[in-house]
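User: Show me a protein chain along with its predicted structure.
Assistant: Here is one chain, sequence first, then structure tokens.
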Amino acid sequence: MKILATKDYTYQTYKRGKQKFSIYMYNDDVNNLKFQISTINPYDDADYAWARCGYKGTNYVQFIKGGKVVDGMQLNYYEDEDYEDENEYLNEVIDSVCVELNSMNSSIKPKIIYD
């Protein structure tokens, strides 16, 4: 993952299978995560679900589509003995959210924009 540091967040991309995701990490404290994840679909105007964490409770992910919360997921909390380090936990969290987004978006047909 490539991380670009800015004032309020870090940006990174993540790839799972053929799908790329954009991740805006506002707080990477494993006990108080705050991030947004969406699929990267160039030239595609379809309405895909995206995810945000930390807006409705600690380590709770909301899945949004069409401006409405359509699902949610409570993340496991970080435990020192379960992970080698915090980065391993963060990678697992990101991957599990991306798996869920892929599942939610699997039936959406692309709307390719031609100029």
